[in-house]
Every structure is written in C-alpha cells, then in structure tokens.
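Progress narrative, work stream C.
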Amino acid sequence: MKPSTEQTESGGLASFACELADLARPMAMEYFRRNIPVEQKADLSPVTHADRSIEASMRALIEKTYPGHGIFGEEHGASHLDSKHVWVLDPIDGTKSFVTGMPIFGTLIALLEDGRPVLGVISIPPTGELWIGRDGQATQFNRVACHTSTCTGLADALAYTTSPDNFDAAGLKVFDRVSSLSAMRRYGGDCYCYGLLASGHIDVVMEMNLQPYDFMALVPVIEGAGGVITDWQGQRLHLGSDGYVVATSTPELHAEVLETIGA
C-alpha cells in the first residue's frame, strides 16, 4: 500500500529532526570539556559559544529546508510563531552539566503543528543516545520502540528532579512531599531524565521554572512511550505553560502525583 501524503510528510519531518540532531552532536562534542568562556544571561543561567553556534546552525538548516516554518530557540529568539509549523530548539539542555564536564546534557528538538507538539527529539551527544517521539506512534530509542515502566504507585516509584535549586521555596516543599512518598529520590539529568523515563528506568520527573524549549520536545517522547506529561494542574503543555512540569510512567501514577501535589 502506498503511504499517504500525510505519512510521507510526517516521516520526512522526523528524518529532518534527526538530521538536526546529527548536526548538533559533533558541534557539542567539539566544545565539550574544553576551557571555553561561560557567560551569564539575564536570568542568571549560563550560556556559551557552543549553545549559540549550535542553535544558529540548526536554524540555518531549517530556514533553508522549510522556509515557511517558524522557529523558537533558547538563544536566538522566536520568528514566525504564527506559522502552522514551528520548531522549538534547545541546543544544549543542561548547560551547567556541559560546562562542568558532566556527560548528561542533551539537544532538544520539537515540532509544533498548530501549536501542538507532534514531534520531539531528545539527543544525548556524549553517549549517542536518541529518543524520538511522533504523534500517534511509539517512541523509539536508537531506532527501537521503547516503553515506560508499569509503575502505578508512588511507593514503588523512582523519582527524579534536576536540582532542588531549580525550585522556589513553595515548589520545593511540594516536590519534597511527593518525592518523600517514593521508593527512591535522585537528582540530576535535565532532559536525560525524561529519556530514562521513556525507556522505563525511572518513573517520575518533577520540575518547575522550565521554558518551552525545555519541555516541548519531551511531550511526544513521553506520550509515545506510554507515559503522561502535564503541568502540575494536569493540563497539557503548550508554549504558554507556566513551566511547572510533571512526567510519570503511567496514568495511575500521574493521578496519585497530582493528588499529592494538591494535598
């Protein structure tokens, strides 16, 4: 049976997203564990020449290949957000890990269609690991389908957040309340945590103060692997979300986490 135009276009966009990841990976590794200058942005987060040059290269390829598409990137801003298709880019998610030589940073690539994330890539340059989620299809990890764990209760769950420093005082109390009920609590990982959740290794990731380029790519990856990802109120994530994110392996676990958040 000949594939439909929609299927062909979807496959082409997914292949292109992987091409973007392939472009970013060697550039990131060229700068990794090199003594490059680190600047501080207005929000006090670090940025390097690597962040900016990787995003610039990805943007140039998008503009050449899909000139009608919009782009929203962490380092170089937004253009044509009213387009049907908008790419959301984080060239180095986990810059703090990157500049300290910790090999758990990643590149995040999302494609929005009419504002909804339909394609997401988590690429981990130091390890060559790559998760890709496509709307309505099973998430793949290095070209093999992956699935979240079957954990349905917090008492059995392995919970992660990147750092307690990323929470305000009220948010940290909520995370402590949730994670104290889990079987294990660990810190670190940035976007890597969500890939590990999609592959069934951990069960809960909970964060706040994220930006759209931090979480839009995660949505198709988590959902395509059977998990659930929303804000802390249980609402779907979108460009205007408040940056409070919770991802879980199963709907049952997600319901318990949300109930605990609201307790």
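Work stream C, second folded protein:
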Amino acid sequence: MSAATPSATASHAISPGTSALLLLLKMRTFVALILVFAFFAINAPNFLTTANAVIISKHVALNAFLAIGMTFVIITGGIDLSVGSIVGLCGMVAGWLVLNGIDLGALGIGYSLQFNTFEIGLLTVLVGMLVGLINGLLITKLNVAPFIATLGTLYVARGAALLSSGGRTFPNLSGNAEYGSASFPYIGTGNLLGLPFMIWMLIVVAALAAYIASRTPLGRHIYAVGGNERGAALSGVKVNRVKLFVYVFSGFCAALVGLIIASQLQASHPATGETFELNAIAAAVLGGTSMSGGRGRIGGTIVGAFVIGILSDGLIMMGVSSFWQTVIKGLVIIAAVVIDQAQSRLQARVALQQEAAAAARTS
C-alpha cells in the first residue's frame, strides 16, 4: 500500500491541464492526420475515390521506406541527407542492369552478364547499402559530422547517377524474358492478394524495423546511442557498429525506393529522388522522432508518412503551385521540431514535479 502512495502524490502534483497538453502533444501525429484528411476530403475534388486512395497509398509507401531508415538514423542523433541521391543512383543501376547487364569486354571476354529480376533487385539494393556503409565509415572512422558526410555523398551519388547515362534517361525497362527479367515491372506495378506488391514490401520492412527497434538488443542500443552516446559506450555498447547499421539500413531503404520507381515508370532518370530526403525527415519528425536523438517509433513514422503523403497529393489535387508545396513542407518540418521541443520541455517539467512529490512523500 505504501509503495503506491508516492505515485498517487506525484500524480496530484501534475495539473489536469498539463497532463492533457502532454497527451495532446504525444498524439499530435494522429491529430494532424485526422485534420489533414478531413480538410482535403472537404476541399479536394475526387479525394475520397478508390483510385485516389490507391495512388496515395503508393506515394505514402515510397516516403515511408525512406522515413523508416531515416528514423533509425535520427534516433542515434544523426541525419542522412543522401537518401534522395541514393534513390536516383539505384534507379539508374537497376535501369543499366535491365538494359545492358554488365559488359565483360574490358576483361577480354566477348559477352556480358545478364541478370534476372531477383538478381537485379539484389545488386541494386547492395549498391544502396554500400553508399550507406560509406556514410557510416565517414562518420565513425573519420569522425566527419553526419550532416557534412551525408551532404558529400549526396553530391557524389547524384553525380554518379548522372555519369552513368550522361544525364539521359534509361527507357523501356520492360525486361527481357530470355534473361528472366520480364517481371521487372511487377515490382512497382504488380498486385498480390489485392494489394500492390510494393505495399507488401513496405509491410515486411516496417515489421522488421519495428521488431528490431522494440524486441532486440540492437534496437535498445540504437536508442541508447541517441540518448547518451558516451554513457552507451561506457556500458559496453558498440557505438560505431550501431551507427554503421543505421546508415546501411537507410541506404537499403533508399535503394528499394529507387528500384520501385524504376519499375513503376519502366524508366530511370538520374534526377529521380531530388528533395526526397525532406519528405523523409518531415515524416520521421512529425511521427515523433526527436531530432536530438533517443526517441522515436516506427509506427509514428508510418503515420507521419501518411500525413505528408496526403498533404502532398491533396495540394496537387487542389491545384496548389509546386513552389507553395515546398514552402508548406518546410513549415511542417519547422512546426514538427518546435512541437517536439515543447514536448521534451514539458516531459522534463513533469518528471521534476514527480520527483519533487516523491521526495516530499518520503521526507
């Protein structure tokens, strides 16, 4: 009975208004989703149609892939500005492999390697993970700040994408039945059990990320590194390995997006993915991931991706200029960070009140 008294005392020390405000801040992503959905349902023509719902779900999925990887990175206290360029680079890699394979002429061999759809997907994903690994090594081994390291790889990956085709598009990526790549368009346009195949891919990746975050030692270490990197290191956490993992995983997610877009369009262009990193950051932060690290949930990020996806598509349906869309997304990021900081300050104040009430009870 006496053990329950301090909690009761602490709860009385917190005003109902403060508790309600803290709950509202924690639920802000769901509130934003409801408000955005209601606004466009009323004001955007054909917003509630089935065809539009399918389109929005596909757009949300693309952003959600990037945002899931970004969530892990931000939880560790980092940032990955290169994901949009990785999307473009990996799309070009997929397009090159579908059209040309790998030419072995330089080795004195008179033929080229051709790949089936699975192999094309695997090689594309490996390229994205390699760029993520480079990001991680720059940050962990050379002590380059995440912002600078990923800004540099942003330019390098985009330049490599442009060089791969001289700035031109790889068209007609319908694949070749002889090489087993005719199913390449299925990745982005196919349906399985009534749902787009890319949605099933998202479900698998999101479930894997949520499991890692909540059920594994690696997940606990990711949060520990973001909460207190030095404390995590002193407690035995392999900080560098954790950081390497989150950047490789972010590269993996970006590579999937590049692969899906190339498959959807049956074409790849080196400019694909420009500004995608902004949407990913916005979705993660709006979903409750703290820019200071140590806090974030995959489920919240998915909801944040829905908010950004509905916002983007709704603005297009209302005929809002793309310039204003960029402004609005920037304002969303700023508002999300401001609200996150307000939540952190309020939580700290509530914690102090609880400690003071507990101390008063025991004294």
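The first strand starts at residue 102 and ends at 103. No further action is required on this item.
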